[in-house]
Specification:
The protein is an alpha/beta fold. The protein has 2 domains: 4-26 and 246-437, Alpha-beta prism (UDP-n-acetylglucosamine1-carboxyvinyl-transferase, Chain), CATH 3.65.10.10; 29-225, UDP-n-acetylglucosamine1-carboxyvinyl-transferase, Chain, CATH 3.65.10. Helices cover 32% and strands 23% of the residues. It has 14 helices and 23 strands. The strands form 6 sheets. The chain has a 4-stranded mixed β-sheet. The longest helix has 14 residues, at 249-262.
Length: 438
C-alpha cells in the first residue's frame, strides 16, 4: 500500500434511495486471539473457523507455533486447527516475539508465567511502551520469576514459571482489561480454586467476552460482585471445539458510521445484536444520533436519520472505547457538540489516542476540549490536512471517514491497518464505488 491515502470526497454525491450497502468484514481480533489461546489449553484438536488473519493474529499464531504446538493454517478459507495438550506447553524453553499484539503480549505472558519452563518474550518498539507491570506483578505473586532486559515492567523480559504458588491474587485493570482476561484464561491450570480480585473497572465488556468463551470451551468463572472477585473452581478443563468466530464488530462500526455520514443504509453481514463484542454498543450511540437499526436476516441494517441530520450526544464509551476514534471522526458533522466520556485508558493503547484525536481534529480547525478522561468536540467544517496516524490502525480507519465529507483529507501510513484489518481501504473503496454506481 502507498504511504498515503487520499480519501475520496463524497460530500456532494447524490445517493440512490433504494441502495442498501452490504459489507463483509473479517473475523473478530478479540475472539480470534482468545480462541487461539483456549485451543492451546484444550485437550485435543480444535478447529477455528472465520479466523482473522492480520498482523496481530499472525504474531499470536507464530508464538503458538514457536512454543511447539501443532497447527494447520488455511488462510484462504480462514481456518486454523490447533492441537492442544490440556495445559502443558510442549517446549520447556523458548523465545517468542509478540510484535505489537497486546492480546498476544498479555495472554501468553500469563500462560507462560504459570507454566513450568523458561521463556523469553520480546515485542515491537510500540509494544515496549505499553503497560505490562500490573500483570507481571500478579505473576510474581504467583511465584513466577521475571528478569527484564531493558526497562523494568516492560518488554523484553524472561519468565521462569513454576506453576501456582498461591490461590489468591489481585490485578489492576485500569490501564488494560487484558491483564485480567489473561489470568482468567490461565487460571484453569491452578491445582486449587483460584480467586482473582479486580481493581479498577475498565473494559468489563472484554472480560465478559473472555468469561463467555471460557464457558464455551468448558470452564466456568464465577464473579462475586460484593468482593469484586472471580472464582475459578479447580478440576475444570478446556474441551477441544469446532468453533465459529464472529465477524469483527470493531471493523463493522466504520461502515455503519459511513452510512450515518453519507445517508446510506448499511448492512454488515452476520453482525447481530447477540454479539459478544462490546463495540455493538456503538450502534446504539449512532441510534441516539438519529439513525435507525433493524435486525435483518443477514445482519443488522443501519438507516441514516430521516431528516439527514446527525445530532450530538454525550456518550460513556468505557465499554466500547475502540470506537471513540470513530465517534470523534463523525462528531464535527453533528448539529450539536459531542462529549465522549470514560476513555482515560485509551491514552495507554497503540498510541495516546485521546491526545491523538484532539491533535488531528485541531489541525483540521475543529474545536475540541480535553480532560483526563473525556473529549468534547464541536461542530465544524474540517479543513484539508494530512492525518498523522501514529502507527495506530484505528486512527487510520476512523479518521478516513472525515474525508468522505471534507475535501483534501489524506491518511498518512494507511498500511498500519494490517494490525487488524489489512484490506480495510480496499473494502472502503469498493463501498464508495458501489455508492457511485448506485
Amino acid at each position: 500500500m502507498n504511504n498515503q491515502y487520499a480519501v475520496p470526497y463524497m460530500g456532494s454525491k447524490e445517493i440512490n434511495e433504494d441502495l442498501v450497502l452490504q459489507v463483509t468484514v473479517p473475523g473478530s481480533k478479540s475472539i480470534t486471539n482468545r480462541a487461539l489461546l483456549l485451543a492451546t489449553l484444550a485437550k485435543g484438536q480444535s478447529t477455528l473457523n472465520g479466523v482473522l488473519f492480520s498482523d496481530d493474529s499472525r504474531h499470536f499464531l507464530k508464538c503458538v507455533q514457536d512454543l511447539g504446538f501443532e497447527t494447520g493454517v488455511d488462510e484462504k478459507n480462514k481456518v486454523v486447527t490447533v492441537k492442544g495438550l490440556g495445559g502443558p506447553v510442549p517446549k520447556k524453553e523458548a523465545g517468542i516475539y509478540v510484535g505489537s499484539a497486546g492480546t498476544a503480549a498479555r495472554f501468553l505472558a500469563a500462560y507462560l508465567g504459570v507454566s513450568e519452563g523458561t521463556y523469553h518474550l520480546d515485542a515491537s518498539e510500540q509494544m515496549k511502551k505499553r503497560p505490562m507491570a500490573p500483570l507481571l506483578a500478579s505473576l510474581k505473586e504467583l511465584g513466577c520469576e521475571i528478569s527484564f532486559d531493558e526497562k523494568e515492567g516492560f518488554f523484553p523480559f524472561t519468565v521462569k514459571g513454576k506453576g501456582f504458588g498461591c490461590e489468591e491474587i489481585s490485578v489492576d485493570i485500569e490501564h488494560s482489561s487484558q491483564f485480567l482476561s489473561a489470568l482468567l484464561i490461565a487460571s484453569t491450570l491452578a491445582p486449587k480454586d483460584m480467586h482473582i480480585r479486580v481493581e479498577g473497572s475498565h473494559g468489563m465488556a472484554y472480560i465478559e467476552i473472555t468469561r463467555r468463551m471460557m464457558e464455551q470451551f468448558g470452564v466456568k468463572a464465577v464473579f462475586d460482585e460484593t468482593k469484586r472477585e472471580y472464582v475459578i473452581p479447580a478440576g475444570q478443563s478446556y474441551e477441544a471445539l469446532d468453533y465459529q468466530i464472529e465477524p469483527d464488530v470493531s471493523g463493522a462500526s466504520y461502515f455503519y458510521a459511513l452510512g450515518a455520514l453519507l445517508g446510506v443504509p448499511v448492512q454488515v453481514k452476520n453482525v447481530t445484536f447477540d454479539s459478544m463484542q462490546g463495540d455493538i454498543g456503538f450502534l446504539k450511540i449512532l441510534q441516539q444520533m438519529g439513525c435507525y437499526l433493524l435486525s435483518g436476516e443477514d445482519g443488522i441494517v443501519l438507516y441514516p436519520p430521516l431528516d439527514g441530520v446527525l445530532h450530538g450526544v454525550t456518550a460513556d464509551m468505557s465499554t466500547c472505547s475502540d470506537q471513540a476514534i470513530t465517534l470523534a471522526a463523525i462528531a464535527p458533522f453533528a448539529k450539536e457538540p459531542t462529549t465522549i466520556k470514560g476513555i482515560g485508558h485509551i491514552r495507554f493503547q497503540e498510541c495516546n489516542r485521546l491526545s491523538a484525536i484532539v491533535t488531528e481534529l485541531r489541525k483540521m480547525g475543529i474545536t475540541c476540549e480535553e480532560t483526563e478522561s473525556s473529549i468534547t468536540i464541536y461542530p465544524g467544517e474540517p479543513k484539508a490536512c494530512v492525518v498523522d496516524t501514529y502507527d495506530d490502525h484505528r486512527m487510520a480507519m476512523g479518521f478516513a471517514l472525515i474525508g468522505l465529507k471534507a475535501e483534501g483529507i489524506v491518511i498518512d501510513n494507511p498500511g498500519c491497518c494490517r494490525k487488524t484489518f489489512e484490506n480495510y481501504f480496499d473494502v472502503l473503496g469498493d463501498c464508495l464505488e458501489t455508492i457511485n454506481e448506485g
